[in-house]
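Can't paste images in this forum, so I'm doing it all in text. The chain is below; anyone willing to post the predicted structure tokens underneath?
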Amino acid sequence: MDNQKVFAMEFARVYPLLVTKAQRKGRTPQEVEQVTCWLTGYTPADLLRAQQDGTSYGDFFRNAPAPNPCRDQIKGTVCGVRVENIEDPLMREIRYLDKLVDELAKGKPMEKILRTAPAEK
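Text version of the structure:
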């Protein structure tokens, strides 16, 4: 599928697929929401609004209010492609979310997914 088709897809059609993928592996919709908000800076209310108002997937990422500065720490492959090597910046943002949901589905702890240091004891 070419990038323009991906960018034009409705967020409301894609986001539930990400949630379903995580749920099949025992994760919750709230965890998908958490990683999505961490990545983009949207609030949970913003995510709901984007699902209701027909926002395209591309516009969802183009208009992200506060992309997380740590997102460049997301490394690895999605669909056989290394996310850090994706040249199109918008597609890279989309694949970052795919990678975060993959990590959720693989059972990684949330602190590792969100690239945070563990709390000191």
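Helices lie at 3-8, 11-24, 29-40, 44-52, 57-62, 89-105, 110-113. The chain has a mean pLDDT of 93.
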